[in-house]
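User: Round two. Same drill as before: sequence, then structure, for each protein.

Assistant: Same drill it is. First protein:
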Amino acid sequence: MSNLMENAGSAIGFREDDLIPISALQHFEFCPRQCALIHIERLWQENFLTAEGRVLHEHVHERNSETRSNIRIVRSLKIRSLKLGLAGVADLVEFVSDKEGVFVPGLSGRWRPHPVEYKRGRPKPGLCDEVQLCAQALCLEEMLNAKLESGDIFYGQPHRRHHVIFNRDLREETERATVLARRLILSGITPPAEFGPKCRSCSMYDYCLPKTVGRNKSARRYISQMLSS
């Protein structure tokens, strides 16, 4: 399974050096400014929410691949799409034995890929988590020449899965977010802060300073000025 990336067919589109992280789509959907702070200004701050999420991901990733009945479970699977210009690591992909499935490098028989993303807390308003999962599915579709119908997001607080159907609307939103997130990152311009209810729980709050930093100002430059004054 480790050679999945090497065996993935090439697609006309982006080069390996031009790929952006799949996680940038989740950040962009949640807040374009958060996406810019992380992926343009290279700022990151961990609060207890992201700490819980990191521990949850580490717990998932530290396990090896395993087989349960007719399911082959693969963790920390590197994926990418040259067509969309995305790269990342899938928390967990369940390959379900299916005679109508596809051939997978390293496995015998035919399999149906089913991505599972792990998140702390509860489902968020909007589609930021669903878009991230759908982006993983689009990568797997390109790499395996497959068609994925659905995946799951496991939320830590309810401790259950949220089933996600990769319908046309979600696929279109994911492709739209990919284009806009790339455009934002390449622009090098951090959007202005817009204070709202979700700001309080954002791990980037102290860097973003949504009540302080004005339009088109760099949070990094503002912090530097404050420290030097």
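Second protein:
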Amino acid sequence: MIGLLGLLGGDAPASVLVVDTVGDRRQDVSLSTIGGQGAFVKEVQEAVLDGRADFAVHSAKDLPATTLDGLVLAAVPLRGDPRDALVGGTLAGIATGGLIATGSPRRRAQLAFLRPDLTFAELRGNIATRLSKLDREGFDAIVMAAAALHRLGLANRITEVLDPSGFIPQVGQGALAVECRASDGDLVALLGRIENSSSRRAVDAERAFLAELGGGCTLPAGAHAVVSPDEATVTDIVTVTGMLASPDGRVLLRETRSGPDGVAVGRSLARYLLDEAGGQSLLESA
């Protein structure tokens, strides 16, 4: 947060308002029980809407797929590492029947698909709490966002980074998302100074994928977008890989599509997984 204020520049005084969310308070239950992705943003967004704060900085992966009325996603700064990471062991090195701790249905489903022999435990809490549980509760490994460990100077704890070609990250993982009131045009323009266009296009494409799946989709899902130059044209190409899985990981649907309009690519990819790849029947049987 302080780093973002420095990027904005200027001499205007600024202060940080720390908001306690239901996701912070309720660490005794799974995130799906208390609202999934929205568990870490609702109270923060309310603070912006009611004027207690001028803008909010979120982990983009915590945001619901659609922006709340009255707010605008004003900036996505340069994205960090979007990948998931194992701490404590490697996927190939964990013994048969090994115990992996994660609070993410997406991570659990993909791990179960890759290693059906693994067993799982719930994991909640901040980074320090999760690492301490690994050390004292006998897990063979825990799964965390690589970007979080890098930002806290804890990259040395990573034992394996999971390649997104085979282990799809959460939508928006590794990116920050800055929201402010849609009516505050001057602030929208100011925050735009910290926007990274490639990161924004990737995050927008992933969020479009999630939005097209719909609020009723309770299946483990993820998407990873990459923006790259097209040698034949002056327009960059957005390549999106998306996945849907059964909660137990026995079925995993994955597809990659590309095009110049990342939002359109994300939406079409979601529609393919739902309508043609079997995702709708998977959803109905979940």
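The domain at 2-80+172-285 is CATH 3.30.160.40 (Double Stranded RNA Binding Domain).

User: Perfect.
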